[in-house]
Amino acid sequence: MPPSRGQKKGSRGRPTKRGKGTKIIALADDRSLPHAVSIESASLHESQLVAGVLGQSFLDTLPQRLIGDKAYDSGRLDRGLAERYGIELIAPHRGDRRTPTQDGRPLRRYRRRWRVERLFAWLHHFRRLVIRWEYHVENFFGMVRLGCTQILLGYL
User: Fold this and answer.
1) How many Cβ atoms are within 10 Å of 14's Cβ, its own excluded?
2) Is the pTM of this model over 0.85?
């Protein structure tokens, strides 16, 4: 019996062919200039992608503090960044966390997160990054790095 108009098709619906898309992960300084940029599949959680972006840094030194949103509130990520890179993670707590790990002083630095959002706003001025026309991920990553280079050169 075929499904009616308002009924869901269940397992007969077509899955997407290429997944959820691509995420651009970036590190920015206090002037919203890019320090590192990476692209990954949008299927993975953001807290799993932090180590990949640290490996793509344009500079020799890494930042002392990393500010992220609530998605980055993970004890394993916090310990891993502190042990491996010596980076302090600043992220507000998710609603299900029982024991607080940060006091109010580092969380006041979270107000500076808009600087990373400004970098993404600058990257979205390049239409080729907003609407991904490139089929191959290497070409798209090259365009992201080219956009970061234009931002850096425009600042100088």
Assistant:
1) 6
2) no
